[in-house]
Fold this sequence. Notes:
- The protein has four domains: 7-86, 3-Layer(aba) Sandwich (GIY-YIG endonuclease), CATH 3.40.1440; 138-300, P-loop containing nucleotide triphosphate hydrolases (Rossmann fold); 311-503, Rossmann fold, CATH 3.40.50; 526-595, Alpha-Beta Plaits.
- The chain has 17 helices and 26 strands.
- The chain has a seven-stranded parallel β-sheet, sandwiched between helices. A six-stranded parallel β-sheet has the order 15-22-21-16-20-19, sandwiched between helices.
- It is globular.
- The protein is an alpha/beta fold.
- Helix 6 links the parallel strand 10 and strand 11.
- Helix 1 (89-101) runs antiparallel to helix 7, helix 4 crosses helix 5 and helix 16 runs antiparallel to helix 17.
- The longest helix has 16 residues, at 571-586.
Amino acid sequence: MGIDRRRCRASQGGGSTLRALVVPAVASFAVDKGFRYALGDHDLQVGSLVRVPLSGRRVRGYVVGLEDDDPSGLKEILAVSSPLPLFTNKTLESVRWAATHYVAPMATVLARTAPPNIPKSAPEKTYAEVERLDGVLGEIEAAAAGRRRSPGWFVFGSPIEQFVALAVSVAGQGQSVLIAAPTAHEVQLISDRVAAVAPDRLISVSPDVSDASVTTAWSRMATRPGSIVVGTERVALWPIASLGLAIVIDEGRRSHKARQTPTIHTRDLLKARSRVEGFSFVMSGLAPTTEALAAGVRMVRLDTQRLWSAVEVVDRLEEPPGGGLISSRVRAAMAGAANRQQPVFVLVGRKGYAPAFRCVACRSLRRCDSCGAATNQAGSCQRCGNDLGPCAQCGRRRFEPLGAGIGRIVEEVRRFHDSVGPAGSGQLISVGTERDLVAASGLGLGVVVDADGMIFGTNYRSTEDALRLFARLGAKVKRESGSRLIVQTSQPSHEIFGALRRSDPLPFLEAELAERATLRYPPFGELIVVEVANPPAWAADRIRSEIDAAVLGPAEVVGRTRWLIQGDDLTKVRQVLRGIVGEMRDAGANVRVDVDPIDL
């Protein structure tokens, strides 16, 4: 039976009737339920990091419960490693949710509550008073400061000044604030803004700082209510003192989701934590994900101004065959902007991206007639495997690419302008991928060379992902006469371009959401990908026979065997999958479980 007391100390003389439930720090499902130990003469609480005996070894462990029961015959806890608890009872609920949802061992998720080194007590500190700043999102501030539950908010755009003002006001009322940014660049940008108005409250955790600095930051935020914590996904499970508000910047960015098991998404974890722990939850971005729309959060637009620059759509069908990767209109616009000393950013596909192709004869986009995905020059669809054959419009068999990698685009631009190079080269015209877009700013022109390859990609999320990516590039372009985003496409009537021109993504995304509901794709259904290197011989039969859901595969993908599991509710499947995955790992297989995959 559990007890309510947060801290317990064994009584002297062996009279204690308490025992601790400890999950050893072993990345295995076999220890998820934990083991019971006598307290010995130790001061413990839920969240204590301890040393315990296990199978003849001394291992670290996490105290997940204190029970009012006879400890006789139990092995004793050997030592308490840190004076600070790594988590609270409420944080533990979020850990259990994450371990179940992402099919991960409890110890693996519990480790995410801790800093890299053993935390020490931080010296007490009283923060200076702060003034309420102008431009604060009043309703959110009131809810956060009063710890009132709400379904959350989505705030359009990336108004860093507004979020900093909101964070400072909430922190000034004694509640801590967590700002989760997608990359180190945004962490630094936001931290600089906070430091300018409330430097003593700032706890900045950039991915590139030392383990010692991260541990110091952890100790401060765990003990000082009224702090403003700025970091990436690594801080999403930290036990922040009196957390009143969590803000996820650009919630649709891929870097918010871990690529390795457990594939936790910052947005989903903090949303789950907010329900359990009662803090306010805010997402931001130029366009919400369909997951954010389906969550029923409030949509907040701070003003009626455009979210991104003016948009010009160039129809590739108006260009003659063999005209190259960049149309004449776009070449003229790029040269003109560069001659006026205005920076130009040319966006190409991310690594591993296959450009769209069009028929040389009739110039129609080559698309799979089964699933609608744009395809490469090979004879089968990369999404569904359908054989493509000749052009569906004219029957010809010659196709030309509409996009290419950075090097190829740089070569083509150099034919009409000398000041061109990869992003970061310092040239007026820079060519880069989504990763390079983070550091771009003050552009006179943004160019998307091959919109079709991104819109009709092999991923079921490719269209909404493309909208957010184009919007991000458009937001980097200055709002002044002549500055704009130019998008090349062979499908100018596609709904995505209407959304871009109107600077209003909601009608388009609501239509996407309705289609997802019909197909039972997330967020209306669930997907889990299981990838195994060197799977045991029995793996395929076990997955097929024991998983009560639609199972696609096995398929060979870059040296790994992949299964895709799909269903409306995979809660029971997760429990079965834990056993199968655990046995495969015990057999020596390397297993990756991707829950809620964004690359599919």
